[in-house]
Structure formats: structure tokens, C-alpha cells
Design a protein that fits this description.
By secondary structure, the first copy, chain A, is an alpha/beta fold.
């Protein structure tokens, strides 16, 4: 005989059950339940990200015991508004209720959901059923009438009078007419107004961050202003950058991003290709910020003056572009802060300061501040915030933040929140390459956009898994992936030997998989020579002035221009969301569709992942998404070749060649061509 | 030129950034982050369910900025313990930390996770790396030495002395020896003891409900005591039930469950097959509780006395079985409460009370109490709790609760919590058949087990999807599925025309898919005659005394006995968890494996879903789970045919016939037979 109770220790048992007052308290607990209110991040701890102009679909699960009729409403407001906007929610089955918020303002919003027992609505529902079935009795009607009478007694003034009037009319009427009166829409409105909303329950508030469009859709071009020269001996200037603006804008970019533009330290300055023995005229890394010429609020004199910089901002705006600056919290050993605020730094027992590392990278030319020395609080925190404010006052609205994962999360949460409370149109891009939990945390606490693992995701499986995680999980609510195809720090292995087709492949992926697409200059010229065995560029521009021939043969300017044109033309390409992967029966061909919310138009993309050989595949056209049968037809526009035709049948065939290793089609259900 | 900012409304903007004190507050915010502490239910609002004797693996994500070394510990205790038990957690990569709790007591437990910056551990990690690479400098050692000195100064007594002693020895030693001392395990222990645990952060507490084994593993047999007779004219008694105990125990059941055993109302009593016109000697439905013979604390006189019932409890225990009672909160119109507490009920304007409904079912012979009338609070709530207490005092430890979804959630949360605080070994089974959110809520607020949609899940896809939801999502933490193959209320459509093979199929599924398996008597005799077009039994036992021939030919007693024997023998079958579905290339054959935590043994089950035809299929043996190659071998024990052999190769073939439409194999990696 089996032993029924595993006796491993005395049970956790109290001596007495509770008294009447505990039961009374229990009866005061909410009878109805609201669960799973979305969008939400970490149970409401952080805002979900959206952009202004979007409709935000809110969903909640609301239920109670029994079979009674419930009602729900959505309330929302911008956080500087006093009054809530209110919308009734619709039930969509299985206790799910929905309504939508149309975001009209940039900035923080909040919303919540109320639910309550809808007694009169429930009466009308049941009474209608019984009437239709011919089983309504006089007592059913009497119950409805009593609800109206009770409501009237609860109310005052006009509402009381009008409800009482209904009661009188019901009492005088015959059975049929009285039933009609009880279902009268006018009475429903009055009863709703008079409703005391029994058992009302309210969800905790949830937050939404409504940002400007560029938070999810922008096309970045990164350059070193000092390299905008045709002579390595002549340091480029902001005026040289102004001269290049038309060319960059012609490629379709809307954001021009510079590594730090501040004075470069002289102590421990680096030489060409990251050497520790610079020549006397080596310009040094712009990430080694600060010298006796100034720190984070100053401009490197060889680039120009603050006046020149403001002119550049104006000229960029004139071309429909904006400037993004680099916010890098680090100092060259001769940064003025080391003299002015030595207590912000950690001095070693031998009187030196440890140089910075981001393993395996070593930065011998920079030192880091310590956010948690007593002397740093709040002086350092406030000073860093004021650095950002200073550049905002010059007209900069977008900041790429260098290595944010090596600075405290509470600093970013406070600093970004503080800035965005006053300047909600400011965008911060997180340049963190580290473990997923840390990358995602930075998104939650305020960064609008984030660098990603994209440059290390090359195979069909890798790309599918990564972009499924970014678009199909809760991550999609707070982490916007900015897909840089390369950076001054990342010369991707895939490109070292791929030749021109590899650059087309990576540009096509980045330009269509996310609304945020970034190119570091040189990519369009298919530059890829590495420091052997590393992801570093040979003779990296980080350490030298690097003039380029922007018309060099073999460039992919045409591809980039095309991609950016399509990105501007089709809303489906202006977000990483709305992504679905489709079957293509070839592991070297990735096939996916992008769809804007509520749109009937699908942008279908196929990219060969093989830069060396032609690849072909049968692939599935998702006719089912339009309710079209497997043998039906769909109108197709080839957006690369600019041709229109139609496909008949769910399975089609494609060929991609190293010459043009990607295809982009626009599919619409109406047959536009045959 | 594209407009850069969508100007749809004034941005949500404050006038000023914050002052120094806000920055100071920010610096006080936790620097480290603990996320995703599991197990958890709704962010800690409800306990995760386990049974005593289980090891609970706790996982948390812990991280901070930068690359510093962290440490984490798990703390847990039963809620009546003052001191925490503590275990250091191990890092498993990507910031995931784990440790386990061994549950030794029945009852409520709580746990939480602490994380902190491990400065000295980090020093040792970095110093070891540098030493190994031959780049350690004197200043590195000096920093470690200073950490020890600072720790010594912070401490008192013996610890201070012993740390100071290390400092002296380091200062006197040569470079090599000083390095060894800094990495000395003895010093590590002292430094850990002296650690002030900078930046310590603590997760919110999470709850665990440790129940007795029967909460997840028990085999129920349901019968109507009054039908334990060989003569429809003679009402069965508790003594008749005692006489049947050996037979029921021989089938392997350990829990014997009765519909309500209380006096049955006479007003509006139902007749045979749910008619409203009973014959004078019709016994009525036991769910119509209460008459002038008593209410919820009384026993129907024809069944016996309270003394008889206690004897039955004793006899059951002697057979290694327990009795489960039905807790049905409803009254026949002649229940004593209607006189004693008329204010607990809702009277209609015509002086009647609405009878109960659970659409589409109508219960004209019962009325419901109203939990929220002012007169019901707290009298009704306390009285209902006391009804349960009364039966616990008689020796009952398991309650099947009728229709809990039509009574308020706060009532159940309070009542079950109150009972289990004093009697933590009491088990409540929720008989709710309603929408998923409501079913799951009842699990969250305290029910140990729940009825399910199993009786309506018949196809391979339906079963796979449902059991994936129950075992692979958060649902697995709080909802234990009790798989009844039939109930007095559910005569499953699948069985109406399946014949005997259908009963074998459903028994095999229920008996192997969950640790909780239930049979309502008559099932083993393959009874299936329905009220035409309904899931009701014809001449339902709910309304009449129903003698049976327990040896009737064509019964499946042998199958049920086998299933219950295997369930007792193999821990893998004592839970719904540990389930994996495998490929069988035939939509009529469902193939799955069950594995107990940490076990090397897999119970592999194949069930034909076709009661009419033989079915065969190639199927995949999951050799990969033992790291065996696709061509490798595995030892197999056929638990149905009692044969041992081995399979070589990942793909095998099976045939299942209506004669025995299921197979159960035990797979172990050691070749036990060839």
C-alpha cells in the first residue's frame, strides 16, 4: 500500500482559521480581474515605445465570476494633461477587450483600463434572448423596470426626471410596448450615465513613449569630418562637410553622424592602426576627448569654430538632414576635468589612472570617470547632463552614445528622462555590444534605438532567429534595432572576402529589415581591408585622416540610393515590425515580407546570402494573407527592375546572381498588370 | 525634402531640467538589476505550485554596468520560519544565475534573490588572468592588498585580526609569494565574510506552494454511493461502498470521490433523465442539496449516519485510499438556509428565486446564494468555510469543488488560503469548464488541481496544442490538469460510437499525459449511451439509482489496472510535466515521451486516435536526448506486452490495432537486452 503523504517535515500550519473580520476584508477585494494589459514592458515598469501619429492598440483581459455582462473602458492622456481621454472597449472573445489610442503628441503618455459589472446591459442582453425565444415573463420585465427606478432614485436633476419618466411610461404600457421601452437605445444611454459601475476595477497605469518618426525610421551616414579632404596632409573641416551634403543627401540619407568633434588629447595619443607610437603629426583618435584646448563642450580647432558648426547644422537642415553627435563619456589623460575634478577619477596606488578597456579592446589613450565616488555625486552627473544640453542648445537633436553599458543604468534613466522631459524630440542611440539582458535594459530605461548583433548574423538561421526575437517577443515593445552595416570599430568578417556582392547583400538586408539603417563611409566603396585576423579596418580612420575617391569604380552607391528611395516610398520599410519570414527552399536565400499596420500592400524581399555564386529557389508567395487561394494571382511590381507583372500560384521560382543578389517586390491584391 | 518632425500637437515638454538633488536621488537608485526571477506567477502575485520532496530550480538574471564581477545568493524559508536558508547561486552564462530549493515541508514557502558587486572576487579574477599572461604589475597587487586592508579596518575582533595578519604577510613577502597569498582560498573566505556587499540589490519575494504528492499525482474513481446496490429498489449505503473498496483499489485507484452526500431537496426535484416531472420515489439529484433533513453539514439519511461515514473513511485509509467529497455551494429550494438566512438569496419581484443556470444547462431544482448581499457578508462566507472545516474534522482532506467559476474569486482566495493555513495538506480540485482566463485564475488563487478541456481534445493537433500550452508556458507553474475521461455531466461525443477501443484510447491518454487521472464509474464498462445529440448520459445516474454488473463482458478493467500500475511504478507518469511530443508520420497516431526530473529513463507512449481501424507509422525515437547518434541503439521494455528488446536507428515502425490501440515503452540508454 502506497504511503499517501510524504512526511518529510512538520507542515507549515497555523493554529486557527481567521475570524469574521478577515472574511469581511476578503469581500472587499476586487471581484473582477484585469490581466495582461498591453502594450506593456516589465509589468508597467517602463514605457512601450511608439512614434507620434501611430494608432496604439490596447488590449486587456477582463473577467469576473459567473456569466454576467461586463463593460470596459480605456483611459489615456499625455502626462502633462489633467483630463483623461476615454474610449469604450470592445470584447473580442475569450475575455479580451480592445480599443486604440491615436498618438497626436510627442512625449510620455499613460493609459489604464477600467472594468465593471454592467447590470442593465446584462438585463437587456438576457431579456432580448428570452423575448426572441418567446419565454420572457412578466417578472423579467419587472426586474428591468426596477433597475431603472433604482437608477432614477440614485440620480439628481434632469437625469432623475428622465429616468423616472421612463418608469412611468413602462408602468402604463402594455407588455409588448413595455418590453420595447426597456430596450430603447435612449434609455440605454441614460442608464449608462446613471450607472454606479458596481465592482469597478482599474488596472495599474501603463506608459507609452511617443517619439518623433526618426526614432524608428531614419537612414544614417557616418563620417569623420577630418577626412573630408582630398589631401591627407590637409585636415578636413565642417565647411568640407557642408560641401559634401548634396552628395550624401542624394544617396537618400537623412541623418549625418560624426564621431566626437571635441579637442583630441595629446597624452598617450595613438598612432596609425592603433599603435602606441604615434608620429608627431598623427591626429589621434577622436574618442580620446579633451586637451588643453577644451573638453566635451568644445570643438576640435582644426574642424572649425562653434560658429562653423552652427552653420553646418543650418545647411544640413536646408538639405532635409539632421546632424547626430557622439556622446562619449571618457577623457584623454589631458582632459581639463582631470585638473578641475581629480576626484571624479580613480587613482591607483601608484598615482596613475587605469586606462579604459572594453574587452578585448584596449584604450590606452583614454581614462574613465567613476560615477560612484562621493565627489562625483551629483557634480559629475549634472555636468554630463549639461554637456548634452549644451549641444541641444546648438541645435543637435540626436545623440549616438558610446559604450553606454559601461556606465550606470540609473545615470541613463535619469539623464535621458531629464533631457526628454524638456526636449521630448531628442533621440538617443545606444552603442552597446554586450550580453542581451544588458542591451535590452538600455532600451527599457530610455534609449530610443540600439546597435545590434546584426553584423554577426550572416546565415539564414541566424538572421531568422534574431529578427524573430526582435519583432515577435516583448523585446519589440522597447528595443528598436539600428542596423549598421559597418562601423569604424566593426569591419565585418563576412565582407573581408565577399567582394562587391557582399556589400549589396548586407545593405539590402539592413535597409529592408529595419526602419533604422546605418552606413559608415567607405562601405559604399566596398572598403574591407582588415587588420589581419581582426574585425578592425587596416589603417583605420580612427587614427588618421583618410581622403577617399567617392566615385571610385565598383562602388554600390546606386544600390544604396535605390534602397533609401524605396524606404522613403513604402511605410512597410519604415519599421522593423510587420516582418514575416517565408519559405524559400534554399538555405542561401532569405525571403521575408514587410507590411505596414493595416496595409494591403506587402513588400516582399529576397536576399541571396551567397556573394560568390548564383542561387535559385522555389519560394512561397503568401497568397493566404489576402485570402487568395493557392492557385490565385497577385499583382507584382519589381521595385528593383521597375517592372510590373503578376504571379499565379503560391509557389514561384527566383534566381539571384552576384551581380544583383537581392530582389524587392511590391505585392498588391488588385491586379495592376497581367 | 521630407518633413523631419511630424507636428501633430505640442510636444509634452516641461520647462526646466532637474536640479542637483534629482541627480543625487538618481545615484541612490539600484545600480545592479535583478530580472526574470523564476519560478513565478504574475510577477509574484501568486505562488508557483510544487510538491514536497521536489527540488525547485530557481533562476534569476543579474547584471550591472561594465565588466565587474558580481555574486548572487538565493534565500528561502517556509513562511512560519524566521531565518532564511541561504545558497550561493552559480552563473550559467548570459547573466543567468541558478540555485535549487529542496522542499522538505508541506505549506507555503517564499524565496528571493540578492545580488551584489564582488570587488575582491573581481580583483582575483583579473589578477589571475594578468598573472597567467605574465603582465601583472606591482600596482595590481597593491590594489588587492589595499582591499584586504580596508576590509580589516571595517571589521572587528577575530576577523579584523586575521585579515590584518594577511596584510602583514603580503607586505613582508616577495612578489611571487604575495601574489599567491592574494589568491589564497583562506583569504577568499575571510574577505567574503568581511564583504560589505556594495550595491546589493534584492528581488521582490516570490512564493511557492509546497503540497503533498497527491496534488500532482493521484488516480480518482468517482461513484454514486446510492448506486452501490444490486437492486434499483434498494438505495445503496456507505456500507455498500465499503464492500466495493477492495475492487476499486485493485484497479489501482487511490482516491474515491462522491458527488454530494447531503440530504436531497424535495421541492422541484428532478425525475429520470433530467425531467421536471419526477415519480414519487425518484431519488432526485444529489446536487440539489438540503431538505428538512439538513443541509451542507448533514448526510442523506438513506446513505447512512455520520458514524457510518467515519467508518468508511477508516476503511478507505486501511486500503490505502482516501475519500474526496464534493463541495457544491447551492441549495434545493427546501434547504434550511432559505428559512434561516433568507437574506443570503436574491428574491425576484414576484417573491420567487431564480433557479441556477450554467448555460446551456438549467438546474430547476437548485437556487444560488448571493455572496454580495450586505446580509451575506461575512455570515455566508464564514458558514461556507465552516462547512469545509466540518468535513475536514471528520477526516476528509480532498474536495472537488462544483462550478467554482460562478462564485467570487475573492471568496476562493480567502477560503482556500484560510483552510490551507491550518490544514496545508487539504487539496481542492476546481470543476470549472469555462473560458481559459477564468480556469487559469482559479488555479492561481489556490485550487491545487483543475478539470480541463481534455474531454473535447481528440485530434493529434488539438491534443498537441493543448498539452503544449499546459506544460510549456507559464500555465505549468499554477495549473495542474486533472484528466477525467468522463464525468456524470460529460459523456464525451468521441465515445458515443467508438466502442471499447475508444475507451482504451482515452484511458491511455489520460493515464499517461497527466499525474492526475480520473474515471467516473461506468467508464470501465464502456457505458456511452447518450441523450440523443447531447453529451448527457441516457438515464443519468444523477437522477436515479443505477446498479451495475462490474464484471460485465467487454470491460476495460485490465487496461485501467495496467495504467494505474505503471503510473505507480514510474515517476515520469506522476506529473503532466516532463512531456515532449515526437514525430510519428501518421495523423492518427500521437507519440510522446514523459521524463521525470533528472532521470535517464524515458516513458515513450504511442496512442492511436482511431478506434475503428489499425494504424501504423514510422516514428522517431529521440536518441539525441541521450547523445546517441541516429544509428545508435537503445534498450526498450514494452510495458504493455512485458517484453525487452532494443531499437537500433532513430526511425522505427509501429502498428496499433483497435484491440490494443496504445503502446507504452520504457527506454533506457544502458542496453538491457539485445
Amino acid at each position: 500500500v502506497r504511503v499517501l503523504t510524504a512526511k518529510r517535515g512538520k507542515p507549515v500550519a497555523a493554529r486557527r482559521v481567521s475570524g469574521a473580520s478577515a472574511a469581511r476584508d476578503a469581500a472587499e477585494q476586487p471581484r473582477l480581474v484585469i490581466e495582461s494589459v498591453s502594450p506593456q514592458v516589465d509589468g508597467g515598469a517602463f514605457p512601450a515605445k511608439r512614434t507620434v501619429g501611430e494608432a496604439v492598440e490596447v488590449e486587456a483581459v477582463l473577467f469576473g465570476d459567473g456569466h454576467e455582462q461586463l463593460a470596459a473602458q480605456l483611459r489615456w492622456r499625455a502626462i502633462d494633461e489633467k483630463d483623461w481621454q476615454v474610449a469604450r472597449m470592445d470584447e473580442r472573445g475569450n475575455d479580451r477587450w480592445t480599443a486604440a489610442i491615436q498618438l497626436e503628441r510627442i512625449g510620455r503618455h499613460e493609459f489604464l483600463v477600467d472594468g465593471w459589472l454592467d447590470r442593465f446591459g446584462g438585463f437587456q442582453r438576457d431579456f432580448t434572448k428570452k423575448r426572441d425565444a418567446g419565454v420572457a415573463q412578466k417578472v423579467d420585465m419587472q426586474e428591468g423596470r426596477n433597475l431603472v427606478e433604482q437608477a432614477s432614485r440614485r440620480c439628481k436633476g434632469d437625469l432623475r426626471r428622465r429616468l423616472a419618466d421612463y418608469v412611468k411610461r413602462i408602468d402604463k404600457a402594455g407588455e409588448e410596448e413595455a418590453g420595447d421601452l426597456l430596450l430603447d437605445p435612449g434609455l440605454s444611454l441614460l442608464m449608462d450615465e446613471a450607472d454606479e459601475r458596481p465592482f469597478q476595477v482599474t488596472s495599474p497605469p501603463r506608459m507609452l513613449e511617443s517619439e518623433r518618426l526618426q526614432a524608428r525610421f531614419s537612414s544614417w551616414y557616418e563620417l569623420f569630418p577630418r577626412s573630408q579632404t582630398d589631401d591627407p596632409e590637409r585636415h578636413g573641416t565642417f565647411d568640407d562637410v557642408i560641401a559634401r551634403l548634396p552628395q550624401i543627401r542624394a544617396m537618400g540619407f537623412d541623418t549625418l553622424y560624426f564621431p566626437p568633434i571635441h579637442p583630441i588629447g595629446r597624452k598617450h595619443r595613438k598612432g596609425s592602426t592603433n599603435t602606441l607610437t604615434p608620429a608627431p603629426d598623427d591626429p589621434g583618435s577622436p574618442y580620446a576627448i579633451g586637451s588643453d584646448e577644451g573638453g566635451h563642450k568644445s570643438i576640435h580647432p582644426e574642424l572649425g569654430s562653434l560658429e562653423d558648426f552652427r552653420r553646418l547644422l543650418d545647411e544640413s537642415r536646408r538639405h532635409g538632414m539632421e546632424i547626430a553627435l557622439d556622446f562619449a563619456i571618457q577623457c584623454a589623460p589631458d582632459h581639463p576635468w582631470l585638473n578641475e575634478h581629480p576626484d571624479w577619477f580613480d587613482w591607483r596606488p601608484d598615482g596613475t589612472i587605469k586606462y579604459a578597456e572594453n574587452p578585448p579592446k584596449k584604450y590606452q589613450d583614454i581614462v574613465n570617470v567613476d560615477f560612484y565616488k562621493p565627489e562625483s555625486i551629483p557634480g559629475l552627473w549634472v555636468e554630463l547632463r549639461d554637456v548634452v544640453l549644451f549641444w541641444i542648445e546648438q541645435g543637435v537633436k540626436t545623440f549616438r552614445v558610446d559604450n553606454p553599458h559601461t556606465k550606470p543604468f540609473p545615470f541613463w534613466e535619469w539623464m535621458i528622462g531629464d533631457i526628454r522631459a524638456v526636449h521630448p524630440d531628442v533621440i538617443f542611440l545606444s552603442e552597446a555590444f554586450t550580453r542581451p539582458a544588458v542591451m535590452y535594459r538600455l532600451g527599457k530605461i530610455g534609449f530610443s534605438q540600439s546597435y545590434t548583433y546584426f553584423t554577426w548574423r550572416n546565415t539564414k538561421q541566424e538572421l531568422t532567429e534574431y529578427f524573430t526575437e526582435l519583432t515577435q517577443t516583448e523585446v519589440s515593445e522597447f528595443f528598436r534595432p539600428h542596423l549598421f552595416v559597418n562601423t569604424p570599430d566593426i569591419n565585418p568578417t563576412f565582407l573581408h572576402h565577399s567582394g562587391r556582392p557582399g556589400f549589396q547583400i548586407r545593405a539590402a538586408l539592413a535597409g529592408t529589415l529595419s526602419g533604422l539603417f546605418g552606413v559608415y563611409s567607405g562601405f559604399e566603396l566596398c572598403e574591407a581591408q582588415p587588420v589581419p585576423g581582426k574585425e578592425e579596418y587596416w589603417q583605420s580612420e580612427k587614427y588618421e585622416v583618410k581622403p577617399r575617391d567617392w566615385q571610385a569604380p565598383g562602388n554600390i552607391v546606386e544600390d544604396i540610393t535605390l534602397l533609401n528611395r524605396l524606404r522613403r516610398a513604402f511605410p512597410a520599410l519604415q519599421s522593423h515590425l510587420g516582418l514575416t519570414f517565408y519559405n524559400a527552399w534554399n538555405d542561401q536565400i532569405l525571403c521575408y515580407g514587410k507590411r505596414a499596420p493595416g496595409s494591403d500592400e506587402l513588400i516582399l524581399v529576397a536576399v541571396s546570402l551567397d556573394p560568390h555564386n548564383p542561387q535559385e529557389a522555389d519560394f512561397e508567395v503568401p497568397l493566404w494573407e489576402w485570402g487568395i487561394g493557392d492557385d490565385g494571382s497577385i499583382a507584382v511590381e519589381d521595385l528593383v527592375a521597375d517592372r510590373r507583372f503578376s504571379w499565379t500560384g503560391k509557389v514561384q521560382h527566383m534566381q539571384l546572381t552576384p551581380d544583383r543578389p537581392y530582389a524587392i517586390w511590391r505585392l498588391t491584391p488588385a491586379p495592376e498588370a497581367a
